[in-house]
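User: My collaborator sent over this chain with a note saying "see what the structure looks like." That's all I know about it. Can you take a look?
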Amino acid sequence: MPSMDVSAISDLFVETIAKALARAIEGLNDSTITDPQRRDILQAVCLMLPAGDIVPRIATVRPDLQKLISFSNEIQGAREGIDNHSQKQAEVVNGAETESGLLEDILKATSKKMFALKKQYEEEEKVVEDLGAQLKAASSAMQATEEAITQLELEQSAKQSEAKKLREKLLEVNAKGVQELRVLEEKVSLLGNEIASIIDNLKNWRALPN
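Assistant: Without extra context I'll predict from the sequence alone. Here is the result:
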């Protein structure tokens, strides 16, 4: 076959690849690259390319397309990780807030009951002072009331300690979640920058020296 025919065929093939590549990367960015249809198009164009350096002018296109396909999968995985993490984080926070609310209700009820018992204690103490004849009975009642107050104070102290630990745990979970989200978002940002650079190279690859 004459060299002119080979050159013409090579030029036609390069032109075909150029058109397919232009359609594949049109509107492509770090947001659209995870679209399954866009990824399939990139893979289809990649499969069209000959292996090795059979056509030197397009030898650099295959590795760049393979990088884009790989980055597409990485970003998709990272975004799914962000969504899953956000959902789990929301579930943890909602559960902690619910439990915290229940503890607050218990503390309020305990405080109200303790206030009533203290008031009762004061009234019974006055009875003891005013009615000597009822001293023994009133003293027994005072003792029982005092024990109840002590028990409630112990319970309230335990609940307050539990509530404090829960708040500290919630802060720790939130801080960890923010850090993990920041790492994933930074990864997506870095991949986006590299994708933009590769797309720019692909748009101008024919202008580059062989």
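A starting point for your reply to your collaborator: Helices lie at 3-25, 36-48, 61-130, 135-203.
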